[in-house]
Amino acid sequence: MATYAIGDIQGCFDELRQLLAKINFRSDRDTLWFTGDLINRGPKSLETLRFVRSLGHNAVVVLGNHDLHLLALAHSHSKPGRKDTLDEILHAHDRDVLLQWLQHLPLMHVAGDLQLCMVHAGVHPHWSIAQAKSLAEEVEAVLQSERGVDFFANMYGDKPATWSNDLSGYSRLRYITNVFTRLRFCTTEGALALNYKSEPGTQPAGLLPWFNVESRINREHGIIFGHWSTLILARNIEYPNVFPLDTGCLWGGQLTAMRIDDLSFSKTALQCSRQCSPA
Fold first, then answer.
1. What is the pLDDT at residue 240?
2. Which of 80, 82, 70 is closest to 152 using CA atoms?
């Protein structure tokens, strides 16, 4: 019995099957954690979504920005992107079942017994894990209610950039969602800088990776995340108590699994057959 965390799949279903064979995964025995962005850009988003849903309680999944984009598209509150590969899902006979399942996924998973949590992109450096979990649940409650459709209409945008407990309404929900699904760089004061997607060291002065902010109060808690493929875990870059698992399978890298029990890593031996630009 083992638990593995797996980075962004983005529709690279063949590579996922290869990785699961490599770690000898058995759905009746093992558990998989997924960092979000199950779908989009890759060639087999529908197969990926169906497979992960079929795992039931043997899968723990958090929402990523591409997963939310699919839901916004389905509710007519977004336009398809030039590189999207989501039509097959939107026209599938089981579309409604898949979308309902997706819409009820969390933004954050916390395993308190392991002092470990998982998000798609990041945790605000000035939020405790308990506060972050509570804020994630605010968004989840709206997503899973009748207000979910209105949420998608108000989800997009980079502002507000600065957190305040006094934020309310969709500004508050948008900020929380951006942290969990889009965060890479921020200022030392914690203001979000969502336009910068490159690897650390190439950002403008005054910006830091969210996990390198000196005043970060959640650094004692292990955080698993995806989203930031240009961190390139394959280069053996190490970060204290954070575990970036998006190793760019979609654009010519590999798909990575981390065994939770001993923090060991496995990767696909082959690259994704569909290579795109980093996203």
1. 76
2. 70
